[in-house]
Fold:
Amino acid sequence: MAMQEVKPIITIRNLKAQYGEKAVLHDINADIYEGQVTVILGASGCGKTTLLKNMLRLHEPVEGSVKFWDTEILELDEIEFNNMLKKVGMLFQNGALLNSISVMDNIAIPLEQHTKLSRRIIEKMIRVKLNLVGLSHAIHLLPSELSGGMKKRAGLARAMIMDPLILFCDEPSAGLDPLTSASLDELILDLKSQLNMTIVMVTHELASIHRVADRVLFLDAGRLLFQGTLDEARVARIPEIDTFFEVGKFE
Amino acid sequence: MDNIKLESSKLIVAGVVDRNTVPELKKEVQHLMRRGEVQSLDLSGIESLDSAGVAFLECLRQDLEEENPQLTVVAAPLPMLKIMQTFADRADEVEKPAKVSIFESIGEKVEGAWLQLKDAVFLSSEICWWAVVGVFDRKGQKKGSFTSAGVQLGYDALPVIALLSFIIGFILSLQAAAQLKIYGGNVFLPDLLAITMVREMGPLITAIIVAGRSGSAIASEIATMQVSEEIDALRMMALNPIRYVVVPKFHAITVVMPLLVIFSIIVAELGGIFIGLQMLDLSVTTFITRSINIITLKDIVISMSKSIVFAWLIVIIGAHYGFRVKGGAEGVGKATTASVVASIFAVVITDALFSLFYLG
Structure:
C-alpha cells in the first residue's frame, strides 16, 4: 500500500483539551503523513481550530502526546520548541498581521529575527513570496488598507517565508472568492509537490477539500470520527460524514 | 569555504545554499569577486536550495551580469531548477510611497487638529443632547448600564481616592503647619485646608484620578468596539452608539463625581486633623467647627459645578478618542493614552478658567 511508504510526520496520541472545565477534545489519536495535504474537517464548533492550536501549544492540552518528527513537543523547553517552530509555518484565520507595520515588514519579521541575511535578499524573498500569493502590488501597504482576502494571502506569505516543512492553515479559503480560493489551492498543491511540504489545513469548503486533500480527519463534537483518504471517507458509511458531504453539495 | 570557488574565472557555487549558509557565501563572493573577472557561473553542484538560496543566486547573477554582460551560466541540476522556478522573482518592484515635505506635513497636522476640534464639538453637542433626552426617555440605552457604570466609575474608585486624598491632606497640613507655627497661627490650619480642598484640590485630584482610571477605560472600551465593528453593528441594529454606550456613563459620572469630590474632601480633612492633633495641639472639635464655619455656600457651589464640568470633559474626551480610533491593537493603545493626556490637560485648563471667573 502506498500509505505505508510514507511515515507519519506528526503523531497525536490520546490528546485531551479543555477550556476551563469544558472538555473540547476527547482522546484524539491521529497521524499526519509527510508530503501530504491533510484536511481537518467538521462542522463549526467541533474543535477543528482547537485541535490545531493544541498541536502547536498555542493552547496547552490537558493530557496526551503530540510528536513532530518523533520528538514529543509537549515536553520541549522554550528554546527547543522555538527551534522546532522555525520549521513550521502557520496561517491564521484572519492573517494575524501586525497592524502597525507594512506588509513587507510583517513578512520580514522571521527573517530579520532568525537569520543573518542582508536586506536586499530579504526584500527579494518577500517579493517572491508575495508574488506567489498574487499580492506583490501591496508590499508597502499597511494591513488596515487590505481587504480580508488580501490579509489572508499576506498571512500566507508570512507563514511561507521561512520555507517551512509543515504548513498549518486555519481556514485558508473562507471568505475568499472562488477564483482566489482556487488559486490558493493551486499554490498549496505546488508547495506540496515542489517543496515536499506537509500541509495541515482546517476547512469546510467542499470544493477546496476535493482539490487538495490527500487525507481527511473528520471531527465531530470533539471526537475524531474518521481518518483516511477522501474515497475511504465516502464508503465508510458514517452518517455524520455522509450528511456533511450531501448537504455541502447543494451549497 | 568549499561551497564556493573561483577557478580560472569560473565561479562555482555548490552544496547547500540556504538561509543558514547564504550570509557566509555572500561574504565569500565579495571576497572572490575582488580577485578577478568572472566569465561564467557554475551552479551544477548545488545540492539543496531554499527561497533564501534562490534569492541569493538571483542577486549574484544580476551583480555578475552587471560587471560582465557575456556571463555564461551552467545550470543547476533539474530538481534545483524546479525550486528556482518556484521562487523566481517575477514581480516588478513597487515604488515606495513618496515622503511628504515638511510644509505639507505641518499643514496636514494643522488641518487635522482643526477637524479634530470640530469633531469634538459636534460629538459633545450630540452627547449632551442625548444625555438630556436620556433623562426622560430611557429607550435605546443599555439595560442596567447606569448602575454598573456608577459602580465602576464611582464605587471602585473609592480606595484610590481615599488613599491619595488622605496623603494630600496630610502633606498640605504638614507644610502649612510648619509655617503657621512660626507665626503662632496654629488655629488657621483648618481654614486653610478647608478652603484649599473645597475650592481647588478636591475637585482637581478627583478629576485627575477619574481621568486616569475611568477616562482611559471609556476610551479603550469604545475604541475596541470601533475596531471590532461593534459600533457599526449597533448602528445597523438601528441603535445610536452614543445613546447606547456613552449616555449611561455620562449620567453615572454626573451623579458620582460630586459624591467622589465630597468624599475626597472629607478624607483630606482627616489627614489634616491628624496633623492638627499631632503638631499644633488643635482639638478635633475646633478643627471641624472652624472648617465648617469658613466654607460658604459659594465655595460649595463652585466645588460641585467644577466637579460636574470635569466629569463631562472626561467622558466627552474619552468618547471622542474612542470613536476616532484607527487601526487595530496599536490604535486602541494610542487612543487611550491620548484621551488621558487630553482630559488631564482639559481639566487643568478649565480649573484655571474657573479660578479666574470666581476669584474672590
Notes: Chain A touches chain B at residues 99-100, 111, 115-118, 120-121, 124-125, 127-132, 136-137, 139-140, 142-144, 161-163, 190, 194-195 (CB under 8 Å). Chain A has a mean pLDDT of 84. The longest helix of chain A spans residues 178-195. The CA atoms of residues 52 and 168 of chain A lie 8 Å apart.
